[in-house]
Amino acid sequence: MLTAESTGFWGTRYTVAENGIPVTTWDNDWWKSGGTFELAGRAYHVRSTMWGSRFTMLDSGGAVVAEAERVGHKNWTVVAGGRVYGFRRVSMFKGEQHLMDGERPVGVIKQTGILSGNLSADLPGLPLPLQVFVLAVLIVHWQNSNASGG
C-alpha cells in the first residue's frame, strides 16, 4: 500500500510512504504542471502538456521512463518498459481510479482527503517508481481540475 500525504500548506509537497515507511517526497513545480521526486538514489522529473492530459516521467539524464496519456478521461493509460497499463476512473464524482487487467480491476487509487488531496494506492505488479509516477500524475491532475473549477 502506497500513500501520499500533503506536507505543505499549498499542497506542493507530499510524503510518499510504502506500508507506512516514507520512501520519497513528491515536490510539485510551482509554475509548471509537474514536479520531481527521488527514489533509491535516482532523480525523476514529471512534466505534462499544457492541457494536462499527457504526462512524461524522465530520469536525470532526460530519458523517458514512462508516459501517461488521456489523463482525466474515463479510460487512460501508462506506458513504461514496453508495457501498457490501463486505468479507469470509477465515477465523475468519486476520487477513485482502478488499475485494470482487461475489464477486471486489479488495483485501486483513492483520494483519502478531498480537502488535503491525500491519496492511497494498491497497484500490484507496478514497479515502485511507476507507482509514484501514477500518484504524482493524479495529484497534479486533481489539483489542476480543482483550480479550474472542473
**Estimated share of beta-strand residues:** over 45%
Compute the average pLDDT: 89
- Could you state the oligomeric state of the chains shown? single chain
User: What would you call the structural class?
Assistant: mainly beta
Distance between the termini: 28 Å
> How many distinct beta strands?
12
Give the strand order, joined by hyphens, for the main sheet. Answer: 1-2-3-4-5-6-7-8-9-10-11-12
* Biggest sheet details: 12 strands, antiparallel, barrel
Q: In terms of per-residue confidence, which ranges show pLDDT below 50 for 5 or more consecutive residues? A: none
SSE series: EEEEEEEEEEEEH
Principal-axis shape equals globular
Total helix count?
Answer: 1
Radius of gyration: 14 Å
Q: Helical proportion?
A: 10-25%
Count the domains: 1
Structure in words:
The protein has 150 residues and is mainly beta. Helix content is 13%, strand content 52%. The protein is built from one helix and twelve strands. A twelve-stranded antiparallel barrel has the order 1-2-3-4-5-6-7-8-9-10-11-12. Strand 11 and strand 12 (118-122) form a beta hairpin. The model has no long low-confidence stretch (mean pLDDT 89).
